[in-house]
């Protein structure tokens, strides 16, 4: 795979990734190289990653607990303290080896430590490769509210090594695949059709480059999400609210990001059908495609009421209005759409049948 050039950095693949990393470390001569891992990537990914680094460097490994529940400012404080205690300075670098939670949080930690040190992201999940690898969004959750605290700041580079995906359980793979399907829905009908035929991880790996190219193309047009970059949030307005609700509820099984976003894309597909004339055929195609891969989730009336309350915290809101990305057709999105309140109940009813 060829490298993808983003705004101020590149996404490198496979052996090119390690070659680019070794060249960079040799040139920059960092005082200390810090590697941020969780318990899973420490065991399953770090040994293979370290084996590819050539040179005599000072390394320090910092481990955090995995999971969205730990994507908070308290975890950041722990890492900042560890960096300080281990003598990190402005000439240090933080390499984030993990999924989207870890790379989002690691980027935020690096961007704010001593007013900013270099960082490199090495995504190890499908979700983080096709979503978090491009765009420079960093941050943490505020309680159960997704990504409320953060900055947009670019890494030095991103290294995508699909072999790391072989360490994942299937549920994590399928979660990441939801973002790839989203890329087809918002940009490319042909890509959507191709993804529908993917039968397993090896098929999905073949499409990683295309998904990153699609996201990169959008981000380059609008780095700070003032206009067209908003289309990347298709399915996320309701999806994030669902994800937050299931995260904070003691009686619910926590949903992975892609599982919640898959529901959001069905619901927002229904809204698209009612408001932008997305065809019935396309709407049913969206619904069946996601329900063929993602288990249907039960929602009570109380659940729906609480989910809709959480939407007011969505980052895309402006002037007290909840704004949506909807589809005129597959491949043609429209952003900043307001939704009549009564349609939300209808959308959940459509999802249930």
UniProtKB/TrEMBL annotation:
GO terms classed as biological process: aromatic amino acid family biosynthetic process; chorismate biosynthetic process
Metal-binding as UniProt keyword: yes
GO cellular component entries: cytoplasm
Record's keyword terms, sorted: Cobalt, Lyase, Metal-binding, NAD, Nucleotide-binding, Zinc
SUPFAM superfamilies noted in UniProt: Dehydroquinate synthase-like
Residue stretches making up the 3-dehydroquinate synthase C-terminal domain: 176-317
Cofactors required: Zn(2+); Co(2+); NAD(+)
GO molecular function: 3-dehydroquinate synthase activity; metal ion binding; nucleotide binding
InterPro entries for this protein: Dehydroquinate_synthase, DHQ_synth_AroB, DHQ_synth_fam, DHQS/DOIS_N, DHQS_C
Enzyme Commission identifier(s): 4.2.3.4
3-dehydroquinate synthase N-terminal domain ranges (all copies): 62-174
UniProt cross-references to PANTHER family, sorted A to Z: 3-DEHYDROQUINATE SYNTHASE
Entry function: Catalyzes the conversion of 3-deoxy-D-arabino-heptulosonate 7-phosphate (DAHP) to dehydroquinate (DHQ).
Record NCBIfam families: aroB (TIGR01357)
Protein name in the entry: 3-dehydroquinate synthase
